[in-house]
Amino acid sequence: MFEPQEFVDEKIAELRSTIIGNAIIACSGGVDSTAAAVLVSRAIGERLLTVYVDTGMMREGETETVRSMLSRLGVNFKVVDASGEFFSALRDVIDPEKKRKIIGERFIRVFEREAREFKAEFLVQGTIAPDWIESGDNVRDMIKSHHNVGGLPSDIKLKLVEPMRDLYKDEVRKLARHLGVEVSERQPFPGPALAIRIIGPVTPESVDIVRKAGSIVEEELERAAKNKKMELPWQYFAVLLPVQSVGVQGDNRVYGKTIAIRAVQSIDGMSAAYSKIPHEVLEIISVRITNEMKKNVNRVVYDITNKPPATIEWE
Length: 315
Prior knowledge:
Layout: H1 4-18, E1 22-26, H2 31-44, E2 48-54, H3 62-73, E3 77-81, H4 83-89, H5 96-118, E4 120-124, H6 129-135, E5 159-161, H7 169-179, H8 204-226, E6 235-249, E7 252-265, E8 273-274, H9 279-292, E9 297-302
Parallel strand pairs: 1-2, 1-4, 2-3, 4-5, 7-9
Antiparallel strand pairs: 6-7, 7-8
């Protein structure tokens, strides 16, 4: 049985003896990285710099929301706009593993710059058990590399600290609630952000499309759950597919893009079942996406695959 206070007490003592000097941590605003930031901040205070990197690939309103949240949590933080260098590094990249590793390395390079300025010697990451299990080891096959794991360059100069490495998502949520982290119930969001919800090249245009579609999916599912039409899924989002198809707008033929909706129920992220969303809710989402994004999208599909055989994210 996981006991949050016992875990906090043990980890704070361990972190104080391990981190001699300054440390830096990436915070995406999700439950994993935010809980790790608060935990380590309680151990070493202002010697931890929490860095939120705006890659240009975040959800709608994400940067403003995270800035406000970190301020309320009282951690030492900094917002870095690195969108230009991330888009440049991902230009023409299609392979999902290359995307993840490029994003992981870019993150590290940003942190190395910030670490030099902050005189940090340690890199804290919010890695949890599913991250390193899916990234593979000497026993397991790699399913997909996670930016916390597979994207780390071999020449990294910072000493790595992963205080939640052995926790599963349900345990992380318990820890976050115990620490007073307001995003404890928030759905998971991948470290590589919207880049891995675009099947194909990552451009400012493709990010704008999947960001808007994802916002509609979130709004309508949360509204339906609030109105008790359905249970809110564990994770739910939009994916931009590299598929165009013929459609009709008025009397005109159009050749538009395709959005896939993904929604699943899970406990710890290691397995998941697709959510049985009512057809009336799916229809509302589809109509909104195709009406509000008619210049780009003319087809919406729903993913009904469990994990396994699929992973939750498409890439």
